[in-house]
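Interim report to the steering committee. The following record documents the input for Membrane-binding protein (263 residues).
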Amino acid sequence: MSFGVSLKKKISDPDFRYEFYTTDKVVKPESDRHYYWFKGGRIHSSEYGTGGELLHDEFFKYYHSNQLAEAGKFKNGIKEGYWKSWFENGTLQSKAYWNDGQLDGSYYAYDETGNLVEEGRYKNNKKHGRWINHTKGDTLKYKHGELVVKKVKVKDTLTNGNKKPGFFKRLFSKKDKPEEKEVNKTQQQVKPKSAVQQAGEQDKQSFFGRLFSKKDKADKTKQPKQQKVKKEKVKKQSQPKDDKPGFFKRLFGKKDKKQVSNG
């Protein structure tokens, strides 16, 4: 039994007008695929089933301004090969590749001015690999449709003695351990002195010990001399003076001697 392809059909709706072909072939729907068919003057689409003449071969969709909106090919009701879409101003909107009714390969999306907005790849109708959003400046990685999130490793980077701790470790250490910080500060204040420091302090003590020892000895040597001088001074003051008699004593002494001689 042969299956034929219909003549080109043309229909329209409030937004677009369409030109396409159909086939009367009956197929068994496969999972994860969208099927397109024509029935009752309209194009229908669903997953896992059909209900009319399957779209087949070239397909064109136009704006009512006659500007091309979308173009591609169908094969027994599913998309196949390269498909493109355009904005009403004629600027390319998207470009994708379909394999057996599933997105597979490169995908590109643009804005109305023609700037590339997003690019990536599909595998079996799912995002796979690196996707770049040029508008947001983001680059994401997918694996079979699942977003791959890099795990942040929080580890101590002080193993080589030259690096600072990781950001999160420093953050939570400051937040959760203020008391430990105070303890560490106290420990640093009472940190045992090294042998070099102790030796230095002993040298200082020895130096000052010798200095003050010399001073004390000098004071002790000087003190007996001062006491001796003081005692001699007191002794002289207590002894009777050997000075000559006063003027009146000498005067009357001479007078008494004359009277004795006259008698």
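The longest strand covers residues 53-63. The committee is asked to note this result when reviewing the revised timeline.
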